[in-house]
Design goal:
This protein folds into two domains: 42 residues, no CATH class; 108 residues. Helices cover 64% and strands 2% of the residues. The protein has five helices and two strands, in the order αββαααα. Strands 1-2 form a two-stranded antiparallel ribbon. A hairpin with a 7-residue loop joins β1 and β2. α3 packs parallel to α5. The chain is elongated.
Length: 170
């Protein structure tokens, strides 16, 4: 029994584990009724799979997929921002300040590029979610962390590029 008063010494995990009843075993090493977590990670059944159902070797493909999605989102978003940023200034100077005054081909281009930005947003969010999952689950921690960083920075780089090019080309 533990006390809520912390001035009394509390038992350590090893002391608590030593108090567990022993289960008879044929091997020379003692086996406790409630195994410790590190013992569970090493325990395997006859087929070689872990007892908790997880695979014994974790593949880093989830982290690599997250990096791929994040990089694709960043590259597409940056390309769309460069094209739109470089054309918005001259189009505004030639046609006027209102979007409805621009030629039809430019309106179509701008709508498609905004759609690409929406797609890149979805890819980036997916990359962040997969990166977090990979980092937490240990299925590619380093690529997962890189994916999170790339997907988090990409919107700022893309928007900054768009703003810079739209003012330079004007």
């Amino acid at each position: 029994m533990t006390s809520t008063d912390f001035s009394y010494p509390q038992p350590t995990d090893d002391e608590l584990a030593a108090q567990q009843p022993r289960v008879p075993n044929r091997s020379a090493q003692p086996v406790y009724a409630s195994p410790r977590p590190d013992d569970m990670a090493q325990a395997q059944d006859a087929a070689g799979a872990r007892m908790d159902g997880a695979a014994s070797a974790k593949s880093p493909t989830l982290g690599k997929a997250a990096v791929a999605l994040s990089i694709i989102a960043m590259v597409l978003s940056l390309a769309a921002s460069v094209i739109l940023g470089a054309t918005v200034g001259p189009s505004e100077a030639a046609s006027g300040y209102y979007f409805a005054d621009t030629p039809d081909w430019y309106q179509t281009l701008a709508i498609v590029l905004f759609g690409v930005q929406g797609l890149c947003t979805c890819l980036g969010i997916t990359g962040i979610i997969l990166g977090i999952t990979a980092a937490v689950a240990g299925r590619g921690r380093t690529p997962g962390t890189i994916a999170i960083a790339v997907a988090a920075i990409a919107p700022f780089v893309s928007f900054g590029t768009f703003i810079a090019l739209s003012f330079i080309a004007a």
